[in-house]
Amino acid sequence: MNRPPLKRFYVKSFGCQMNGYDGERMSELLEAEGMIAAEDAATADLVVLNTCHIREKAAEKVYSEIGRLKRADGTSPMITLAGCVAQAEGAEVLARTKMVDIVVGPQAYHHLPELIRQAASGKVVDIDMPVESKFDKLPARKKVGPTAFLTVQEGCDKFCTYCVVPYTRGAEISRPFSRIINEAHALVDKGAREITLLGQNVNAWSGEDDAGRPQGLEGLIRALDKISGLERIRYMTSHPNDMSEGLIEAHGDIKKLMPFLHLPVQSGSNRILKAMNRAHTTESYLSLLQRLREVRPDIALSGDFIVGFPGETEQDFQETLDLISEVRYAMAFSFAYSPRPGTPAADMDNQIDQGVSKERLQRLQALLNTHQLEFNQQTIGRKTDILIERAGKKLGQMIGKSPWLQSVIIEAPVKIGDMVTVELSEAGPNSIRGRQTESVMA
User: Where is this protein chiefly located (predicted)?
Assistant: First the structure.
């Protein structure tokens, strides 16, 4: 099929922050080729669907999304399927639909410009996990806001029995120390005041500093702390098994490291944790949280939960509720278990009825929502700094993030990128209102 020259592209990313980061980087690759971002898929010559494989029936939803790209005149843009669904499905994508032109995995998207050229002559699949770092092939970041994501680690060696990440993202790989520091400097030079370090297991990052000394994530954070103009540091997602004492101490020592930690536990039942191959217990998890609260009493905690895992009894579920009641999370993500083909849990006996899982999920989320509102209410009256990220829905409203990752709405003559001192004044379940108390910090 002969196509006119590709001039406009549209990237749609699904799922986690790392997919969001990858989507931004693919956009920058295409811009470096002279293409312009389109406002929507309908006006694009090239559409990239950057997919996630975590949610239930992810592949089926992607194929539905592909179908909607067909236009009234029977034509369609060049379609690239990227991300974890592309990695998991591979060439099977081309067998299921004729609309897709390119299939590219999350470790090969730096090849996208060349794949587009190859696709002019026929369908292309690239789901290799090459030895060379894709980050070395990516162009310099151009679009940088006041907050920026910075991937430092990819892949996973944990092999939780429900998870596809080791198969779609590969083994744990840490980016080199100096390249991370250099990229962080570049982001700050372009206007970033807050950087969030990303990784499937970000606290598994390790490397050597410029002096050849071994470093863990805490050493990397301490180096970032020295960058002038960088005012806030965050990281996610962490694994309890990689939460070292040095990293815990960093939360007490480093002012720029925000008092927020996303540390998934998944279940409060040791029996289910063992079946999940999580390699931690509720006791070891709670011990970590106690230590964190000792060094940083105001830390806000976030977590992930899976309900209805194969074999989960009502008692197992109650133990999860008990854990939640003890920890009292500031926010959390929760899901009903759904099997992923190729994972050990998909073949386990005692799969839980979907109706039971949904009912348990509703109870769990009700408890989590109660605690989230309580946390927000407990911060009322605090004076704190927020970093303005975007305009609100109403005229004159601006929205920024508190140190505890709350969305704070204010009405004040400020602009995106400003750091504003506010008093938190009114709490809702998902956001807080604030009043500006001091002048803007440029």
Answer: cytoplasm
Residue that is written with structure tokens 């989230």 in the block? 372
| Binding-site annotation: residue ranges | 16, 52, 84, 156, 160, 163
Query: What residues are designated binding site for [4Fe-4S] cluster?
Result: 16, 52, 84, 156, 160, 163
Torsional sign, CA 305, 306, 311, 312: positive
**Given 3-state DSSP classes, what are the helix, strand and coil percentages for the chain, each rounded to the nearest 5?**
35, 25, 40
Question: What percent of the chain is modeled with pLDDT above 70?
Answer: 96
Helix (H) or strand (E) holding 291: helix 282-295
Residues paired with residue 198 on neighbouring β-strands, in sequence order = 151, 236
Give pTM, 2 decimals. 0.84
CATH number at residue 415: 2.40.50.140
| Domain, as residue range, for 176 | 134-378
Angle, in degrees to the nearest 10, between helices 177-189 and 217-224 = 30
Residue with tokens 């699949």: 125
**What confidence tens digit (pLDDT) does each residue in 36-76 have?**
999 999 999 999 999 887 665 666 788 888 988 988 887 88
